[in-house]
Amino acid sequence: MPKSNAPAAAPEPLPTPSGTQSIPANLRDRLSPVVMETYAAGDFHRADMRTIAREAGMSFRTIYRYFGDKEALLFWFIQHWLGGLYPAALKPFDDAGDLKSKLLAVLTLHLEFYERNPNVGRIIFMTVPLERWMRDPSYAQHEMMRRLLHAITDAQQQGELRCDVDSRLILDTFNAIFNRAFLMWEYRRRSYSLAAQAAPLMSILWNGITPHKAREPEAAAAKKPTAPRKRTAK
Question: Whole-model pTM?
Answer without folding.
Answer: 0.82
